[in-house]
Design goal:
With 180 residues, the chain is an all-alpha fold. The chain contains 8 helices and no strands.
Length: 180
Amino acid sequence: MDDQRLVERIRAGDRAAQRELYDAHVDRVYRLAYRMAGEDALARDLTQDTFVRVFEKLDGFRGDAAFTTWLHSVATSVVLNGLRRRKRIRSRERDIEAARHVGITPRRAEPDLKRRLTEAVDALPEAYRTVLVMHDLEGYTHREIAAALDVKQGTSKARLSRARARLRIELQDFAEEWVA
C-alpha cells in the first residue's frame, strides 16, 4: 500500500495504518539516526521521537512532496535537535565497525585508516557531515537531502563536494594503499 493511502487511513483514525507506516519506514529512519548519533540507544530514542513527531504533525503534511521526503525532513530535524539537546554532537564512543550490524558490510581496511577516517568525518562541519552521511552512507538523493534540510539541491551537492574534498586532503597519504 502506498504512503498516501496510509496517511489517509491514519487521518481517518485507523491505528493499524500507523503501525504499517511505522514498519515501512522505521529501518531507514533508524539507520539515519544511528549514523548521525553513533550510538544505538540514542538512535533508537531519536527514531521513536521522530515517529511521535510524525504522527503528531501528520495533519500538517500537505502532500506537495512525497511522504518520504517529508518524513526525512522530520527525522533530520529531530535527530539534529536531539543531538544538540543532549550535547553529544559527534562524540561517538564507538568506531565505524559498530555500524556493521545495520546492513552494511565494510571492507577490511587497515585499522589506522578506519581510525583516521572516523576522525576526519567527525572533524567535518556539521552541515558537511550531515550531507555526507545522508548521501554517501544512507543513499539519500540530493532532492531528499535538500527537502530534509530545507536547502537547495545545489547547496546539498556543494556541501557533499566540500566534505569529500576535505576527506581527500585528510586521507591523501592512504590514496596509494587503498583505492576504491
